Amino acid sequence: MGGFSTLMIAVPMIFIFGYFAWWPIISGLTMAFQRPDFLGPDEFVGWSNFEYVLTDPLLPKVIGNTLMFAGLSILFGFPLPLLMATFMAELRGSRRLYSVLAYLPVLIPPVVVVLLWQFFYNPGASGFFNEILGVFGIGPFGWLNSSDMVIPSMVLAATWAGAGSAMIIYLAAMTSVSRDLYEAAELDGAGIVSRTWHITFPQIRGVILILLLLSIIGSMQVFTEPFIFTKGGPDNASMTILLMIYNYAFIGADFGAATALSVLLGLVLCVVSVIYFYATRRYSK
Fold first, then answer.
1. To which H or E segment does residue 43 belong?
2. How far apart are CA 269 and CA 263, in angstroms?
3. Which of 28, 67, 164, 238 has the CB geometry, 3.0–4.6 Å to 106, for a possible disulfide?
4. Along the 285 residues of the chain, how does pLDDT read in single tens digits?
């Protein structure tokens, strides 16, 4: 009787979760094979939406831009919060103050962050970054107006805005590491680098691997920075996959192509996740 009562209580929650979580996914999969007409019945077009998306001449450039953003984010943005957390873990009385200061950028709305960094990236000689570099006789640089610098510039802004969240997670994981291990290492004469490499990182490697996967998935779905910073410019140098999906749907009014590209991106990320889990399962234990 108790099990039946529990099931009856859970059914409404399962229904609500399925409706708001899984029904949009199923609708998206269906729409990818249709030409939606919100004033009448949808037209089934088979694989035409996928063919249109895959033959779009802009797609290779968009994929390259997205991979470049993801690669730079992982290369520079992923180690930063881990190093910050390692530094914080070695502090004692002032750890809380530095943690709050490092987490502050996360509290700023993303749109405000982008607008703030737009001020920093002013391409004129009076721009914040250009003015600083001008003291050393460097620049000025175009930053967001340069095809070569626009993606690294966006990576820098995104890293500054998001590093605090990962740092707090790392810091919480590091507090669960037994202090006996550190004390034994200190008695053996191990320094901070040795303790971090041989004790801290192995003890929290599961958290590191999970956050690395989340960083890969998140960076492949970047949208806010290119949308507000440049709208994909200059010359589509910062056009990403999600921004292309947005343009399909809300500029070209082609919701079938937008959902088709969304499905393709979702499938790629699923495959990447499965491969990642299989490749790292022996290290995550």
1. strand 43-44
2. 10
3. 164
4. 456 666 677 788 888 877 787 888 887 788 888 887 766 677 788 889 999 999 999 999 999 999 999 999 999 888 888 888 888 777 766 667 777 777 777 777 877 888 888 888 888 877 788 888 888 888 788 888 888 899 999 999 988 888 888 888 888 888 888 888 877 877 777 777 888 888 888 888 888 898 999 999 999 999 988 998 998 888 899 999 999 999 998 988 888 899 999 999 999 999 999 999 888 877 666
| Per-state percent for the chain, helix, strand, coil, to nearest 5 | 75, 0, 25
Counting Cβ atoms within 10 Å, is residue 82 exposed (0-12), middle (13-18) or buried (19+)?
Answer: buried
Phi then psi dihedrals of residue 253, to 5 deg: 55, 30
pTM, to two decimals = 0.87
Query: What does DSSP say about strands 43-44 and 34-35: parallel, antiparallel, or unpaired?
Result: antiparallel
- C-beta neighbour count of 284 within 10 angstroms: 12
Residue 153 tokens, joined: 């510039």
d(CA 57, CA 74): 27
Measured distance CA(207)–CA(85) in Å, rounded: 13
Q: Which of 254, 255, 253, 225 is nearest to 240 (CA)?
A: 225
Quick one: tokens of 92? 């004692």
The upper half-sphere exposure of residue 140, i.e. CA atoms within 13 Å in the direction of its Cβ, equals 16
- The CA-atom distances, in angstroms, between 232 and each of 81, 216, 237 are 28, 21, 6
φ/ψ bin of 110: left (φ > 0), alpha (ψ from -120 to 50), beta (otherwise): alpha
- 55 class by beta-carbon count within 10 Å (0-12 exposed, 13-18 middle, 19+ buried): exposed
Helix (H) or strand (E) holding 34: strand 34-35
Specify the DSSP class assigned to residue 188. Answer: T
